[in-house]
């Protein structure tokens, strides 16, 4: 089994690439965002650790994570972000391995691991290749402002708290630039698949 780690900064278009892999190429995708939600289900070990670390202010009345409040806390304090990641990353890694084992038993030759913090979480060695999606800063700002309904200042802050693209580029195997149209992105991805993954059985 070959594992491609798909990653990219906020509003880079990584999720669009993930959807193309899933829908156009019919490839199995392990989504770290979904795993992170599973890791903080009410009553889960991860959620209990978060409550112990940050108090009930980060919980909603039903016991689920108040993502809005948690987002405010981590956006303004790197120490808080590090504490949260110290809880989440091991839990997500465990769920990832469980998902991978199920796919291995199913005989899947190629798996996409869609993980926005693949490099930051120390999971670079968990995959065979890192595919990094990169988009210019102005496009990312515009996307965040439109998607999240925030001003430019907060949009910039959301980008700045992440690892710079320059550092990720140095650690990635392949860079997929997403500065054009959806058709351009699909063409680039098609070229990548044909050049890097020549085994026809994984394209079926």
UniProtKB/TrEMBL annotation:
<comment type="pathway">
    <text>Cofactor biosynthesis; coenzyme A biosynthesis; CoA from (R)-pantothenate: step 5/5.</text>
</comment>
<keyword id="KW-0547">Nucleotide-binding</keyword>
<dbReference type="InterPro" id="IPR001977">
    <property type="entry name" value="Depp_CoAkinase"/>
</dbReference>
<dbReference type="GO" id="GO:0005524">
    <property type="term" value="F:ATP binding"/>
</dbReference>
<keyword id="KW-0173">Coenzyme A biosynthesis</keyword>
<comment type="function">
    <text>Catalyzes the phosphorylation of the 3'-hydroxyl group of dephosphocoenzyme A to form coenzyme A.</text>
</comment>
<dbReference type="GO" id="GO:0015937">
    <property type="term" value="P:coenzyme A biosynthetic process"/>
</dbReference>
<dbReference type="InterPro" id="IPR027417">
    <property type="entry name" value="P-loop_NTPase"/>
</dbReference>
<dbReference type="GO" id="GO:0005737">
    <property type="term" value="C:cytoplasm"/>
</dbReference>
<keyword id="KW-0963">Cytoplasm</keyword>
<keyword id="KW-0067">ATP-binding</keyword>
<protein>
    <recommendedName>
        <fullName>Dephospho-CoA kinase</fullName>
        <ecNumber>2.7.1.24</ecNumber>
    </recommendedName>
</protein>
<keyword id="KW-0808">Transferase</keyword>
<dbReference type="Pfam" id="PF01121">
    <property type="entry name" value="CoaE"/>
</dbReference>
<comment type="similarity">
    <text>Belongs to the CoaE family.</text>
</comment>
<dbReference type="GO" id="GO:0004140">
    <property type="term" value="F:dephospho-CoA kinase activity"/>
</dbReference>
<keyword id="KW-0418">Kinase</keyword>
<feature type="binding site">
    <location>
        <begin position="11"/>
        <end position="16"/>
    </location>
    <ligand>
        <name>ATP</name>
    </ligand>
</feature>
């Amino acid at each position: 089994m070959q594992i491609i780690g798909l990653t990219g900064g906020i509003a880079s278009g990584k999720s669009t690439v993930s959807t193309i892999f899933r829908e156009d190429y019919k490839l199995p995708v392990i989504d770290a965002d979904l795993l992170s939600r599973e890791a903080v289900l009410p009553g889960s070990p991860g959620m209990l650790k978060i409550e112990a670390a940050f108090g009930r202010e980060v919980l909603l009345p039903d016991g689920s994570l108040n993502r809005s409040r948690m987002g405010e806390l981590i956006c303004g304090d790197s120490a808080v972000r590090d504490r949260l990641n110290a809880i989440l990353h091991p839990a997500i890694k465990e769920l990832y391995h469980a998902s991978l084992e199920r796919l291995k038993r199913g005989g899947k030759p190629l798996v996409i691991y869609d993980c926005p913090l693949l490099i930051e979480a120390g999971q670079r060695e968990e995959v065979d290749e890192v595919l990094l999606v990169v988009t210019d800063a102005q496009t990312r700002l515009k996307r965040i402002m439109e998607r999240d309904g925030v001003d430019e200042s907060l949009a910039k802050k959301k980008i700045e708290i992440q690892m710079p693209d320059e550092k990720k580029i140095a650690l990635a195997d392949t860079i997929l630039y997403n500065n054009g149209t959806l058709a351009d992105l699909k063409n680039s991805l098609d070229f990548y698949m044909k050049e890097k993954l020549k085994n026809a059985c994984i394209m079926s």
